[in-house]
Design goal:
The structure holds 2 protein chains of 2 kinds.
Chain A: H1 4-31, H2 49-56, H3 58-91, H4 97-109, H5 112-126, H6 133-159, H7 162-169, H8 174-202, H9 206-211, H10 219-226, H11 233-257
Helix pairs in contact in A: 1-11, 2-11, 3-6, 3-8, 3-10, 4-6, 6-8, 7-8, 8-11
Chain B: E1 6-15, E2 18-28, E3 33-37, H1 44-52, E4 59-64, E5 67-68, E6 79-82, H2 94-104, H3 109-122, H4 138-150, E7 156-160, H5 168-185, E8 188-193, H6 196-202, E9 205-210, E10 213-218, H7 220-225, H8 230-235, E11 240-243, H9 244-251, E12 256-259, E13 265-266, E14 275-286, E15 290-297, E16 302-308, E17 324-329, E18 335-337
Parallel strand pairs in B: 3-8, 3-9, 6-7, 7-8
Antiparallel strand pairs in B: 1-2, 1-4, 4-5, 9-10, 11-12, 12-18, 13-17, 14-15, 14-17, 15-16
The chains are: A mainly alpha, B alpha+beta.
């Protein structure tokens, strides 16, 4: 198994798989500097004019701004509700606890198209709410909460109740204990969960399609609507390149923060 | 007599179908060093957690210094706990850990700083105040946990297997330190342990737990010399248990009895006043300071005899397997035990 030949074969396979994933992404970034509008390969020469045009495109800038706000607010809601739900599930016993836990996690597994249709019907037909910015936020929060909840639950389980008992033993009430002990111990896991939630929301397209109001476009939707217009193709490409870079940062940060450094294991 | 430091009446705790604690009555005097000893699962830790307020009893009451605290949360009781794994806050310095109790009780900054410094000095850790708990050794963490509890000047200090995580040598040193500390601060210490040697070394009085109930509460010497039932006789020290037939033939009495191995003489020179029996040595166990001889008696019973190695372990001084010997003991060293049946 551990022969040099085997190791080389495995290394080759790994490289091939990674190449299939990442070469197209690198192409997107390279093409954003390609002078050819139809992405002739190899690029005849390089230019930054598409980046300038993308920057000047009010549609693209507007879409970025909508996406950032949606992702930030949805993440914030997910952080508050996800933390509270994780504490309820990990620190209290109540009837139907396992069911609640499952119901919170479920939205991430449900097909986006189902969630989208269901939410649209609920918003429009049942509640009589006009689709708009806030309907996107609420829709995104339903699946953003999952990453926060999962991270927080894992951390709380690992942490155990010893530190919280010690805090109460020393005279701290529940809220003080949360503020001074539980929350600081959860912080890195919440940050990791929040960054993942942000990334999920930022590139979500299916649920957004169903829950976005008239004239409100998130960045992925703007890309979808512009990519088949020949005039816009290079600009879309620039926006895609930006999206790649913007997505990498939170995921990289989340991975670094997700570790359990300094958190003692519960016994 | 003034109110005891802790008064427990009819304390019971069920976890589902399991009766972890089953009707415990206990009085612990002010300033006492008290041990709760028993095998794991005997309920001793659950009683400690109910005194601390981490578990609520199914029924029964707990009084601290004359005040009923049953049902009060942990933060509303004048007790502090040293946890088995210390439970130091990993994100705070040693100083902040020790100050924590004073901080949440809104003690002024200058005062709490001063008191935490004194507490750390009393456990010889003043130079470590800026470190994180992860940068300390096990013994040092143990002392921080002690300082963090004692700085609050509780009426009672609870210790859950306080020395369990330390190696043998450090444990011995910490035992002495704990005992000195308790004498210095003069408050009631209640600790849980499954180590009988630790309980005998440290405690003024010991409660023996078994199966959710207390079997006996007594001083270490009383427990050893006057165990009331077979469980206590067997759990504290080694004991020769004589029941039913063997008691009748050997002692001529009905009931259950215990004789400690060191109370039995091997081939006594003078048997006046002794009860005697003869037998054959089945096993010789060399223990350094003592030798244990397992002797099969002609009357079908087996007795373990301890003999001090006063003259070294040379061949002439030791007895051998298959030697025929006479055993003798004073009648007053036969302890009558009560069994659960009667």
């Amino acid at each position: 198994m551990n022969s040099p030949v085997m190791r080389r074969v495995l290394a080759g396979l790994a490289a091939a798989v990674l190449a299939v994933i990442y070469v197209p992404l690198i192409l997107v970034v390279v093409n954003s500097f390609n002078t050819s509008k139809v992405f002739a390969w190899p690029p005849p020469s390089f230019t930054t004019q598409w980046w300038v045009r993308a920057w000047e495109s009010s549609g693209a800038r507007e879409a970025v701004w909508v996406s950032v706000r949606v992702a930030l607010i949805a993440t914030l809601i997910a952080l508050v509700l996800g933390t509270m739900a994780s504490l309820a599930v990990q620190r209290f016993t109540f009837f139907g606890k396992d069911t609640v836990s499952l119901l919170i996690i479920l939205p991430i597994a449900l097909p986006g198209i189902v969630t989208g249709v269901a939410l649209k019907n609920a918003f429009v037909s049942v509640m009589g709410i006009n689709l708009g910015f806030w309907t996107i936020v609420v829709a995104h929060a339903t699946f953003c909460i999952v990453t926060v909840f999962n991270n927080a639950v894992a951390r709380l389980r690992r942490l155990g109740v010893n530190l919280e008992e010690a805090s109460m033993d020393l005279g701290a009430h529940r809220w003080t204990t949360f503020r001074l002990v539980t929350f600081p111990m959860m912080r890195s896991s919440l940050l990791a969960g929040g960054l993942l939630a942000f990334a999920l929301s930022f590139d979500e397209i299916i649920v957004t399609t169903f829950t976005a109001g008239e004239g409100i476009q998130t960045l992925p939707i703007w890309i979808l609507q512009n990519m088949f217009r020949p005039q816009q193709a290079p600009v879309v490409n620039v926006v895609a390149a930006v999206l790649i870079l913007v997505s990498i940062v939170p995921i990289w940060l989340a991975q670094r923060l997700g570790g359990d450094e300094g958190v003692p294991a519960a016994h | 007599m003034t109110n005891p430091s802790i008064r427990i009446r009819g304390l019971t705790k069920h976890f589902g179908q399991v009766r972890a604690v089953d009707g415990v009555d206990l009085d612990i005097a002010d300033g006492e060093f008290f041990a709760m000893l028993g095998p794991s699962g005997s309920g001793k830790t659950t009683v400690l957690r109910m005194i601390a307020g981490f578990e609520q009893p199914t029924s029964g009451s707990i009084e601290l210094a004359g005040t009923d605290v049953t049902g009060r949360p942990a933060y509303d009781r004048d007790v502090n706990t040293v946890f088995q794994d210390y439970a130091l806050f990993p994100h705070m310095s040693v100083q902040d850990n020790v100050e924590y109790g004073l901080r949440v009780k809104k003690v002024a900054k200058a005062e709490r700083h001063e008191r935490a410094k004194d507490a750390l000095a009393s456990v010889h850790l003043e130079q470590y105040s800026e470190r994180r708990p992860s940068q300390l050794s096990g013994g040092q963490r143990q002392r921080v946990a002690l300082a963090r509890a004692l700085v609050n000047r509780p009426k009672v200090l609870l210790l859950d297997e306080p020395l369990g995580a330390l190696d043998l040598k450090l444990r011995r040193a910490m035992q002495i330190e704990l005992k000195e500390l308790q004498r210095e601060v003069g408050i009631t210490f209640v600790f849980v342990t499954h180590d009988q040697e630790e309980a005998l070394t440290l405690a003024d009085r010991i409660a023996i737990f078994n199966d959710g109930k207390i079997e006996q509460v007594a001083t270490p010497a009383e427990l050893y010399e006057q165990p009331i039932n077979p469980f206590v006789a067997g759990f504290v020290g080694t004991s020769n248990l004589l029941e039913n037939e063997s008691a009748k033939t050997l002692l001529g009495r009905e009931g259950s009895f215990s004789i400690r191995p060191e109370k039995i003489h091997l081939d006594p020179a003078d048997t006046t006043g002794l009860q005697t029996a003869s037998g054959v040595i089945r096993e010789v166990i060399y223990l350094g300071a003592t030798n244990h001889y397992v002797v099969d008696l002609t009357t079908n019973a087996t007795l373990t005899v301890a003999r001090q190695n006063l003259h070294g372990a040379s061949d002439q001084n030791l007895r051998h397997r298959a030697d025929t010997v006479t055993l003798g003991w004073l009648p007053e060293h036969v302890i009558e035990l009560t069994t659960k049946e009667n």
